[in-house]
Write a structure and sequence with these properties.
alpha+beta; three-stranded mixed β-sheet; two-stranded antiparallel sheet; 1 helix; elongated
């Protein structure tokens, strides 16, 4: 089992997918805990990544289709928003 801690802004650090069958325990800032499957957190990660890419004008693969110039090479996310009822 993997244990993660929610930060004060409501995020957990997650920069990759977890195996779908692994159980992950999250301790939330209010002191409660929740246990989620890897698939649930992977879905939350994918949603956060899609939102990040949409806000930054990137396509589905994370590339900017603007003309060549100075770009941000970090088109991934490291933090995923979580809440206690997200597994329901």
């Amino acid at each position: 089992m993997i244990t993660l801690q929610q930060d004060a802004e409501g995020f957990i650090r997650m920069n990759r997918h977890y195996p779908a069958s692994v159980r992950i325990k999250i301790t939330f800032t209010d002191g409660s805990t929740g246990e989620f499957s890897g698939k649930t957190l992977n879905d939350a990660y994918d949603a956060a990544l899609a939102e990040f890419r949409a806000k930054n004008g990137l396509d589905a693969k994370g590339y900017s289709r603007m003309t060549a110039g100075r770009t941000n090479s970090g088109n991934t996310i490291d933090f995923v928003p979580v809440h206690p009822a997200m597994g329901e």
